[in-house]
Amino acid sequence: MEGFSSVTNLQALSTLLNPPDEDDEGDCAFVPSNAKLGPGHIGPAKSAESKVATSPYIKDSSKDIWSEKEVAEGAQFDDITDPRPQPEYDIVLKQRVGTEDIFLGMSRKDPSSMCCESMVVKIKLPGTKFMEVVLDVKEKFLDLRTPKYRLGLHLPHPVHSQEGTAQFLSEKEELEVTLPMNRPMDCINLA
């Protein structure tokens, strides 16, 4: 196995893959025999200008670890030290259909989730009153807080957060939040 990693074999492979130019000649001659060469040594030597990478991950300031765009919406609500349990919830996709859709098939709607207009989040809150519920809805995140429960829910689709409605059903002790979905192709799919 040592035959594959010897210095002469790596130099021969480098010469085979990248023939030396007139100005490159002799670069490998000054490498000591005990130097460790690896796959990064194959090819032409990197100049200082080529080491500056053009990457979308380059930050504006060298001390920044991440940008605000990289943090998921609603991450500020995630609190792992909060002892309150997460309530049971269910997400149901909903669409408006008429008789012409069901019986005649006159529109392009089908039973798939792509044709759904809104999302209903049903949250069971046993022992909770309407006045105790604090609800905050963002485009991709739903935050619900009560004295007994805490729910931070990342939504499966973006929604119009300002156009949603919430209804607390006292007899079931359940909160139903209806949110219209915000998808870029809705004007085409739902026409």
From TrEMBL:
Q: What residue stretches are annotated with the PIH1D1/2/3 CS-like domain?
A: 86-181
UniProt GO BP: axonemal dynein complex assembly; flagellated sperm motility
Fetch the Pfam families from UniProt: PIH1_CS (PF18201)
A GO molecular-function annotation: protein-folding chaperone binding
Q: Quick one: a GO cellular component term?
A: cytoplasm
Q: Where is this region: Disordered?
A: 15-34
**Superkingdom of source:** Eukaryota
Q: Which family does it belong to?
A: Belongs to the PIH1 family.
Indicate what this protein is called per its UniProt record: PIH1D1/2/3 CS-like domain-containing protein
Which species expresses this protein natively?
Anguilla anguilla
Q: What lineage is on file?
A: Eukaryota, Metazoa, Chordata, Craniata, Vertebrata
